[in-house]
Amino acid sequence: MIPRPSPLSGGPSRRIPVPRAIRDLALISLLACTGLRRSEVVRLVWQDLHVQTDGTARLIIHRSKTDQAGEGAVIAVTKRAMDDLLRWYETQDPPDNARVVFDVCKRQISRIVVRRVKAVGLGGGL
């Protein structure tokens, strides 16, 4: 664990395991750049991300709440979000493209976002 005076660590007085901080940053980056629902995030696997030559990615969403026909969708992922996701991928032991991207449930996603938002002082009432 490394002390970090950053929004991800909750301030200089708290210590958070580095992989958890990396995961949280990747999760929040992905949510922010794509607008995915929590239910879509929990089903993502690494092979759904198709990295482009410019560092961005195309994300394949196989099923969505608003996709009743099951046609799927392709969503753009920014280079910044991909950098954060790749950093998270590198912490996986061993890396596996068939593995889910974030091994969390919908409720955990909410808790992670609320905890990180509070840590940077952006609001306590989420």
Any overview of this molecule?
There is one protein chain. By secondary structure, the chain is of the alpha+beta class. The protein has one domain: Orthogonal Bundle (hpI Integrase, Chain A). The chain has four helices and five strands; from the N terminus they run ββααβββαα. It has helices at residues 18-34, 38-42, 79-90, 106-119, and strands at 2-3, 15-16, 49-51, 57-61, 73-77. The strands form two sheets. Strands 3-4-5 form a three-stranded antiparallel beta sheet. A two-stranded antiparallel ribbon has the order 1-2. β3 and β4 form a beta hairpin. α1 packs antiparallel against α3 (79-90). It is globular, with a radius of gyration of 15 Å. The relative contact order is 0.20.
Describe, in short, the structure shown.
It contains four helices and five strands.
SSE topology:
Blueprint: E1 2-3, E2 15-16, H1 18-34, H2 38-42, E3 49-51, E4 57-61, E5 73-77, H3 79-90, H4 106-119
Antiparallel strand pairs: 1-2, 3-4, 4-5
Helix pairs in contact: 1-3
Low-confidence stretches: 1-13
Strand order of the largest sheet: 3-4-5
| Range of strand content | 5-15%
Largest sheet: 3 strands, antiparallel
Span between termini: 28 Å
CATH superfamily: Intergrase catalytic core
CATH class: Mainly Alpha
Provide tags for this entry:
alpha+beta; 126 residues; 4 helices; disordered N terminus; 3-stranded antiparallel β-sheet
